[in-house]
Specification:
Rossmann fold, globular, alpha/beta
């Protein structure tokens, strides 16, 4: 069965469109290969694929790399040389004139490139000597007749060649397979072998380090499930490969559903850019302080992967900077770095008030208004982009989001002849926004004129096949029924008064992995929203037959917290869960409510002999507000041998197998608040397996939650226009 147009575009990956002499000819071969391999389902093709050996002292970069379940690995070395530029051939050496180099050895070059990749494959027992490997040379400006007339075909060392006329053949795949020189024999790969080959080439996820701590034997049911989930590795997501391994020649927007791997991919993309362009100044920016250590770890893993274990990330020396959006004295951020390098010193007549994002936006707006910003970065990648956007017009700069526009101004142009084109890459999930009710459009970030780069007259793809905007639909972290419950509750699908917020067109729903029946254009229309398993590949439902999402109401807060402590004690003592990283408690509600509940929960756990950890505290069983600023650890979220008890703002970006959400009544008593419902969405999607949601007292929203849990992965409701906001920005195709 042939691929769809979308799949066709996605399986052909341009790592970076580079302008160089002979590019048009190489582009012609690439376009021909893309057309020839159109209908091959289990196939990936790369244009420029760097293979680095020994700390980048040696770089093999196949012009075109084909990876196929049946055909194995094929390297095509393209030489845009004309027949009169080859003076004579001796062995594999072609001596040239009026060419960039003499002699050239195109076939040996292709074989050496291929051999490096095959060496990686042969290090894995599952693939050892099984992957077919072939190489050939493409000469798009020479015909076979011209080659024969010069007598070059009589050379004993004449390599396999794709000539100009071959590129017009309809059976190009067969020509390549039959003519390419064999470097290693092999076989048609089994699915397991094919998945491993893709991971060697693409590695969509860094290898998971085995848990060195020995769990008690025999392993309890929960512990068994966790071990099985740790061993599970999803199949290759071709869209993730595109995002992680391509370097766009301009801005790029990534819209990703919760748990889709946005943070992992941005870390991969940043590491890939840094590894490929070590002379670039790159900033990887995030909002949640507790993500810092995770980002450093992920970037380090990716650099080690790209360098075959020879290079590690050194934050103090590297030109790739991992930055919090704000920054402070002992840890630079994006804002502080821009100000420090340009001697910007704002004078404040009065204290800056508001949420962290509001304060930062205010300062960015002032800097933009009072200073001319000098470019200092070649690329800026922003994670958690929804948390750096605000609704308030007074905090925007000339109708643009101030934080984003300051980032744009701090970027160098991609090329001297395109001064308005810069590499700003931002990832977001609008449903996880805790401060804003709307998500910034590309016009709010780049302005009306520059937003056309991402679409409009500019089209949806950059030259060579790199997308300008992505929508990631697969959720790898959170089980499907918990994710759908999170969307249903967060948006209010089953509210008697109608949904509060949500996406109102089928296309955008499909982009985040849902199927929709019904017409959003008709008020009163019956709408059915469902999520197929293929878009929620977390396999916990195969291992655990009980409920993944539980909801309990108690008579008092004391009863709720006593039950919480008993369950966690059982998790640790009987179920085989570790206190840290396996278990997470999140207190819901307004700032005051959640702080009070967090403290009460922590004290109750301690009373039952369970150590707690409050994010940013120095040690276990401490409250950060009782510590001096120098004793706090703002980047820390977990502590060994203690259960983390967090508020929602600190929990963002983190995850655990067992998640306890307490204080549901703080949401239910003001159930029409979109921001409070968003807390539930973010909290529910922290789970990798189980969620226990609890509160005190009966509210009308309680029955809504029970009905959501009962519905599972499919929901039907009568459509009413969202009362608070409509989510969505056109995703280009």
């Amino acid at each position: 069965m042939g691929s769809t147009t979308q799949e066709y575009k996605l399986k052909f990956i341009t790592t970076e469109p580079i302008h160089f002499p002979g590019q048009k000819a190489e582009q012609k071969v690439w376009d021909t290969v893309r057309s020839a391999f159109y209908n091959r389902d289990n196939c990936l093709c790369f244009w420029t694929y760097p293979i680095f050996i020994k700390d980048k002292q040696l770089c093999y970069e196949p012009d075109i790399l084909i990876v196929d379940q049946e055909f194995g690995v094929i390297v095509i070395e393209v030489k845009n040389i004309f027949i009169n530029q080859i003076t004579y051939i001796k062995g594999y050496d072609w001596f040239t004139e009026k060419f960039y180099k003499s002699p050239i050895n195109a076939y040996s070059q292709a074989k050496n490139q291929l051999q490096q990749l095959i060496n990686y494959c042969n290090q894995r027992s599952l693939l050892k000597h099984k992957v077919r490997a072939k190489a050939l040379v493409a000469l798009p400006s020479i015909t076979e007749k011209q080659w024969i007339e010069r007598g070059f075909h009589e050379q004993m060392s004449c390599p396999p060649i794709l000539f100009q006329e071959h590129l017009a053949k309809t059976d190009l795949v067969e020509i390549i397979i039959q003519n390419a020189g064999q470097v290693q024999g092999g076989k048609f790969l089994k699915d397991e072998e094919w998945n491993l080959l893709q991971k060697i080439v693409c590695s969509p996820i860094p290898p998971i380090k085995p848990d060195k701590k020995i769990r008690p034997k025999p392993i309890a049911p929960h512990g068994q499930v966790i071990e099985q989930l740790q061993q599970w590795v999803s199949s290759t997501d071709i869209e993730q490969i595109h995002i992680g391994m391509s370097i766009p020649p301009g801005p790029q927007r990534i819209r990703g559903i919760a748990g889709s791997g946005k943070t992992v991919l941005l870390c991969q993309k940043a590491a890939w850019m840094h590894w490929y362009h070590p002379d670039w100044d790159i900033a990887l920016v995030f909002f949640t302080r507790s993500l810092y250590d995770q980002a450093v770890s992920l970037v380090n893993q990716w650099l080690k992967f790209f360098s075959n274990g020879e290079v590690e990330y050194e934050p103090d020396k590297s030109r790739l900077k991992i930055l919090h959006a704000w920054g402070e004295d002992n840890q630079p951020g994006l804002y502080s770095t821009i100000c420090d390098l340009q001697n910007i010193n704002l004078i404040h007549n009065q204290p800056v008030i508001g949420s962290p994002t509001e304060k930062l936006a205010y300062l960015c707006k002032r800097v933009l208004a009072e200073y001319e910003i000098k470019p200092i970065f070649d690329a800026i990648l922003i994670d958690e982009g929804q948390d750096l956007a605000l609704d308030e017009q007074q905090l925007k700069f000339e109708d643009k989001q101030s934080i984003y526009w300051l980032s744009w101004q701090a970027l160098r142009p991609v090329a001297a002849d395109t001064p308005d084109v810069k590499r700003l890459i931002w990832a977001y999930d609008e449903a996880q926004s805790l401060d804003a009710l709307s998500v910034p459009t590309s016009k709010e970030i780049l302005g009306t004129e520059l937003s056309q780069i991402l679409g409009g007259n500019g089209g949806a793809w950059y030259e060579g096949g790199i997308r300008k905007a992505y929508a990631m639909r697969h959720c790898y972290r959170t089980p499907g029924n918990i994710l759908t419950a999170a969307h249903a509750i967060g948006m209010g699908w089953l509210r008697p008064e109608g949904m509060l917020t949500g996406i109102t067109n089928k296309k955008d729903w499909e982009h985040i992995g849902y199927e929709v029946e019904g017409d959003f254009r008709k008020i009163g229309e019956q709408i059915t929203i469902s999520r197929p398993l293929k878009h929620s590949p977390n396999p916990v439902h195969y291992f655990w037959k009980g409920d993944l999402l539980k909801f309990n109401i108690y008579n008092s807060c004391e009863d709720e917290l006593e039950a919480l402590s008993q369950k966690i004690r059982q998790n640790i003592n009987d179920d085989g869960l570790k206190p840290s990283r396996d278990i997470l408690v999140i207190a819901l509600g307004t700032e005051e409510e959640s702080i009070n509940l967090q403290k009460r929960a922590a004290r109750t756990l301690q009373k039952h002999g369970i150590n707690f950890y409050i994010p940013s505290a120095l040690d276990i069983n401490q409250f950060p507000e009782e510590l001096s600023s120098q004793d706090k650890r703002p980047n820390q979220f977990w502590k060994e041998e203690a259960v983390t008890v967090s508020r929602i703002y600190r929990a963002k970006g983190n995850e655990a197998y067992m998640v306890y959400l307490i204080g549901f009544n703080n949401i239910a008593k003001n159930e029409s608040s979109v921001s409070l419902r968003n807390q539930l969405f973010v909290a529910l999607t922290r789970s990798k397996a189980w969620v226990n949601l609890s509160g005190v007292g009966e509210y009308t929203m309680c029955e809504e939650v029970r009905q959501v849990i009962k519905n599972g992965s499919s929901f039907s409701f009568t459509y009413k226009k969202p009362l608070a906001r409509i989510i969505g920005e056109e995703i280009l195709t």
